[in-house]
From TrEMBL:
InterPro entries registered for this protein in UniProt: SusD-like_N, SusD_RagB_dom, TPR-like_helical_dom_sf
Protein name as catalogued: RagB/SusD domain protein
Any one Gene Ontology cellular component term annotated for this protein: cell outer membrane
Family indicated by similarity: Belongs to the SusD family.
Keyword Signal: yes
Amino acid sequence: MSKYLNRRFSFLVMIFAMLLFVASACKKDFLNPPTTNQAVTDEFFTSLSSCEQMLNGSYVILAEPFYNGTNTIIYPDVVADNVKPVIGGTFLTAHYSWAQVPSDLTTGTSFNLNTTWRTAYRITRQLAYVLKYIDQFRNENPTKADDIKGQALALRALVYFQLVNMFSQPYSFTANASHPGIPYVIAEDITEGVSGRETVQDVYLRLIADLNAAIPLLSNQLSNKIYMNRTAAKALLARIYLFKGDYQTAKALAVDVNNNVPIMIANYPSKLFTNTETEALFQLLPMQRSLNGSVTTSYAGYYFSTTSLSFIATTDIATLLNEIPTDARKAWVTASGTTFRISKYPANVISGFTQTARSHYQTLLRSSEMYLTAAECYAKLNNEDSARWYVNAIRIRAYGTGFETVATGPALLDTIAKERRKELAFEGFRMYDLLRNKQGVNRSDANSPDALTLPYPSLKAVAPIPTVDVLVNDLKQNDGYN
């Protein structure tokens, strides 16, 4: 088949997927479909309400399948040293051994992250439609229109930041971040294809621009955390600046967030990942409903549960969480014979789910992360008193009084890194934290000898680009997968 026909076939597949999605998943709210099944055309966008429906449809795809627990939340811990697949399991086994291979969309699905890649661009095309039409209806309700636009911009940044971490080496991999990033597609027309991979530096510039544009538009109403809001967008921007190595800006944003939303003390950690988690900034709603196909969320807790036990904790993280007897977080791992089950996520948060392990909120941004971001940034900016204040707030909450650190210099940075690993374990950070700090992976209880060590730098630290996009859209494949 010629390259031109390949492109046409790919476009037709994508168009069909888009039409099917709009017919089945665009919602006035998360679980109630609109009365229309009209395709994505100019005629669909007739009011502010139609833009809101498209935005809410994007939230649905974000929840399932994009933040399906295996590829986005669990993957970074599996390829690092917090989580390992159950022997004989099928999910992420190749990733765990850094043995991913490129493949097309129909074969080798256990060896790649194609679903995550494909879904990301599905979401961002949806958001592009919102951004294209929203200003036409701004006069209906300027405040609401601004909020919808801000949400679309911030969600686009969230999705692309996830992609650049999965498919590209960290910002510090080259001196000026000139290595390949991802295509930052902002057009809604899928027939335009993809022009190529931007540099990581350019991707970060776009991420920052989207969030800086979003923040003044967004509502700061934190009572409904299943929608992106101003404080959550600031937290995401702080995370991006931290990963970029701009500690001054990351620190200022993290402190601002924590002034508005302090860490949760009461009900910690029992109310994490519930709708009463007071430190949550942005959460995904658990959903269960058949709607022209299954719309049932499968967040990380489901794959850690006995219902679908696919992953267990490594001995390394289990030992770390149990090193101080009073640590409230030691309950996040439970000994089961010679292995450790992960029990961080609650079940049956919303009643009525067929499988209760699916019923928990997936918190994507919370203030504990921002305390740790502030601590790390202050330490790297040589303001150790402030660094200790933030990390000690995390330590006192977890251990009780009497465990405040007085460390300085490299020991202080090590303490902060250890607390970050503990607090954010099983939430999708570990590999990216190792890479941005130029550290390799070292496991003490690997499932096989070839899974013991991954040095830094390594070409296998990032996932391969799907073959279909390499061939059809002339994208450069990641080195090491050619």
